[in-house]
Amino acid sequence: YPKAEFAQGAEKAKIGASVAMIRDALGFVKATGAVRQQVLSLYYPPLDSDHPMVAVAKGVADLCVGMLDGCKHFDPIILQQAILAIEMNVFVGGHLFPLLCRANHSCLPNIIFVTSEDQWRVKGLKG
Questions:
Q1: Which pLDDT score, from 0 to 100, does residue 91 have?
Q2: 90: which DSSP letter?
Q3: Which of 31, 58, 61, 101 supports an S-S bond with 76, CB 3.0-4.6 Å?
Q4: What is the pLDDT of residue 1?
Protein backbone atom coordinates (compact mmCIF):
# COMPACT_ATOMS: atom_id res chain seq x y z
CA TYR A 1 0.00 0.00 0.00
CA PRO A 2 1.11 3.59 -0.50
CA LYS A 3 3.00 5.08 2.43
CA ALA A 4 4.01 8.62 3.33
CA GLU A 5 6.67 9.88 5.70
CA PHE A 6 6.36 13.03 7.74
CA ALA A 7 8.50 14.72 10.31
CA GLN A 8 7.33 14.55 13.88
CA GLY A 9 9.78 16.31 16.13
CA ALA A 10 13.20 14.80 15.53
CA GLU A 11 11.74 11.54 14.21
CA LYS A 12 10.14 10.50 10.95
CA ALA A 13 6.84 8.71 11.17
CA LYS A 14 5.28 6.55 8.48
CA ILE A 15 1.63 6.33 7.64
CA GLY A 16 0.16 3.78 5.25
CA ALA A 17 -3.04 3.01 3.47
CA SER A 18 -5.60 0.56 4.76
CA VAL A 19 -8.13 -1.72 3.12
CA ALA A 20 -10.77 0.67 4.48
CA MET A 21 -9.48 3.37 2.14
CA ILE A 22 -10.11 1.12 -0.85
CA ARG A 23 -13.62 0.47 0.49
CA ASP A 24 -14.03 4.25 0.81
CA ALA A 25 -13.13 4.67 -2.85
CA LEU A 26 -15.41 1.88 -4.07
CA GLY A 27 -18.32 3.10 -1.96
CA PHE A 28 -17.86 6.63 -3.24
CA VAL A 29 -17.87 5.66 -6.93
CA LYS A 30 -21.01 3.53 -6.40
CA ALA A 31 -22.86 6.29 -4.52
CA THR A 32 -25.42 8.60 -6.05
CA GLY A 33 -24.40 12.06 -7.19
CA ALA A 34 -26.11 13.61 -4.17
CA VAL A 35 -24.21 11.40 -1.73
CA ARG A 36 -20.91 12.12 -3.52
CA GLN A 37 -21.58 15.85 -3.27
CA GLN A 38 -22.34 15.53 0.45
CA VAL A 39 -19.12 13.57 1.05
CA LEU A 40 -17.05 16.15 -0.81
CA SER A 41 -18.60 18.93 1.28
CA LEU A 42 -16.93 17.49 4.41
CA TYR A 43 -13.56 18.74 5.64
CA TYR A 44 -10.36 17.30 4.21
CA PRO A 45 -6.86 18.76 4.02
CA PRO A 46 -6.00 20.70 0.85
CA LEU A 47 -4.32 18.55 -1.79
CA ASP A 48 -1.25 20.80 -1.76
CA SER A 49 -0.79 20.52 2.02
CA ASP A 50 1.97 18.50 3.63
CA HIS A 51 -0.51 16.40 5.63
CA PRO A 52 0.69 12.79 5.26
CA MET A 53 -2.77 11.47 4.44
CA VAL A 54 -2.84 13.57 1.25
CA ALA A 55 -0.03 11.52 -0.31
CA VAL A 56 -1.48 8.23 0.92
CA ALA A 57 -4.95 9.07 -0.44
CA LYS A 58 -3.40 9.99 -3.80
CA GLY A 59 -1.65 6.63 -3.94
CA VAL A 60 -4.87 4.79 -3.10
CA ALA A 61 -6.86 6.80 -5.66
CA ASP A 62 -4.27 6.15 -8.37
CA LEU A 63 -4.19 2.45 -7.46
CA CYS A 64 -7.98 2.18 -7.60
CA VAL A 65 -8.28 4.01 -10.94
CA GLY A 66 -5.48 1.91 -12.40
CA MET A 67 -6.58 -1.49 -11.13
CA LEU A 68 -10.26 -1.64 -10.14
CA ASP A 69 -12.95 -1.83 -12.80
CA GLY A 70 -15.41 0.21 -10.74
CA CYS A 71 -12.95 3.14 -10.55
CA LYS A 72 -11.31 3.05 -14.00
CA HIS A 73 -13.33 5.92 -15.48
CA PHE A 74 -13.25 8.08 -12.37
CA ASP A 75 -11.20 11.25 -11.90
CA PRO A 76 -8.35 10.31 -9.50
CA ILE A 77 -8.27 13.80 -7.99
CA ILE A 78 -11.96 13.63 -7.05
CA LEU A 79 -11.39 10.13 -5.70
CA GLN A 80 -8.43 11.37 -3.63
CA GLN A 81 -10.60 14.16 -2.18
CA ALA A 82 -13.35 11.66 -1.35
CA ILE A 83 -10.94 9.27 0.38
CA LEU A 84 -9.59 12.15 2.46
CA ALA A 85 -13.07 13.44 3.31
CA ILE A 86 -14.21 10.00 4.43
CA GLU A 87 -11.06 9.18 6.41
CA MET A 88 -11.06 12.56 8.17
CA ASN A 89 -14.73 12.36 9.17
CA VAL A 90 -15.62 8.70 9.65
CA PHE A 91 -16.89 7.38 12.97
CA VAL A 92 -16.39 3.91 14.40
CA GLY A 93 -18.05 1.29 12.24
CA GLY A 94 -17.63 3.31 9.04
CA HIS A 95 -20.49 5.71 9.74
CA LEU A 96 -20.50 9.25 8.33
CA PHE A 97 -22.72 11.82 9.99
CA PRO A 98 -22.35 15.05 7.99
CA LEU A 99 -23.50 17.39 10.76
CA LEU A 100 -22.01 15.58 13.75
CA CYS A 101 -18.56 15.17 12.22
CA ARG A 102 -18.29 18.95 11.89
CA ALA A 103 -18.86 19.38 15.62
CA ASN A 104 -16.13 17.10 16.88
CA HIS A 105 -12.82 17.72 15.12
CA SER A 106 -10.25 17.35 17.85
CA CYS A 107 -7.40 15.11 18.90
CA LEU A 108 -8.95 15.46 22.36
CA PRO A 109 -12.65 15.04 21.57
CA ASN A 110 -15.33 16.26 23.96
CA ILE A 111 -17.92 13.75 22.74
CA ILE A 112 -17.85 10.11 21.68
CA PHE A 113 -20.05 8.04 19.40
CA VAL A 114 -21.90 5.23 21.20
CA THR A 115 -23.88 2.42 19.57
CA SER A 116 -26.20 -0.27 20.76
CA GLU A 117 -28.34 -2.72 18.82
CA ASP A 118 -31.11 -0.23 18.17
CA GLN A 119 -29.56 3.17 18.82
CA TRP A 120 -26.80 5.54 17.73
CA ARG A 121 -25.99 8.50 19.95
CA VAL A 122 -23.23 10.72 21.18
CA LYS A 123 -22.12 11.05 24.77
CA GLY A 124 -20.43 14.08 26.29
CA LEU A 125 -17.12 13.47 28.02
CA LYS A 126 -16.25 15.13 31.30
CA GLY A 127 -13.52 17.73 30.87
A1: 75
A2: P
A3: 61
A4: 42
Q: How many CB atoms lie within 10 A of CB 20?
A: 14
Spatial distance between the Cα atoms of 49 and 19, rounded to a whole number of angstroms: 23
Please state whether the predicted TM-score (pTM) of the whole model is above 0.70. Answer: yes
Q: What is the pLDDT of residue 127?
A: 58
CA distance 45 to 121: 27
Q: How many CA atoms lie within 13 A of 108 on its CB side?
A: 2
Bridge partners (DSSP) of residue 95 are 91
pLDDT of residue 31: 95
Residue 64 near residue 79, CB atoms below 8 Å: yes
pLDDT at 115 (0 to 100) = 78
Give the C-alpha separation, 5 to 12, whole Å: 6
How far apart CA 58 and CA 103 sit, in angstroms, is: 27
CA dist 122 and 42 (Å) reads 19
